[in-house]
Amino acid sequence: MKEILIGSTLALSCTVTEDKLACTMKSGELPVFATPAMAALMEETSAKLLGQFLDEGETSVGTALNLQHTAATPLGLTVTAQATITAVDRRKVSFSVVVRDSAEEIGRAEHDRFVVQAEKFLNKANSKK
Questions:
Q1: Tens-of-pLDDT digits for all 129 residues of the chain?
Q2: Hey, how many other C-beta atoms are within 10 angstroms of the C-beta on 72?
Q3: 9-126: which CATH topology?
Q4: Domain spans of the chain?
């Protein structure tokens, strides 16, 4: 693992499509951007940001996500998540993530990820079978 720089940021965007709607994901009844889809975008953005600092064979796993979904976004709009590294404690990396659509902020979260050796992690998980 390379030195992880606090304050590093990355933004990723996606379009609110049918598969990302609350009524499709069963997290609600309305055709608006689903909270689980927002959570996935937050994790994806954070993981990709952290990935820039990882060595071959390393990956990261999400361990905590405390999010607030504060505004609805309809089908067809683009949402953008911006993740910022806020703290590093050995293998634990913390992020602040803000999500916006074209009109306003729609959510934010504090997120933690742990850096792991991918093969070792999978072997341990698969040993449960």
A1: 889 999 999 999 999 999 999 999 999 999 999 999 999 999 999 999 999 999 999 999 999 999 999 999 999 999 999 999 999 999 999 999 999 999 999 999 999 999 999 999 999 999 999
A2: 13
A3: Thiol Ester Dehydrase; Chain A (3.10.129)
A4: 9-126
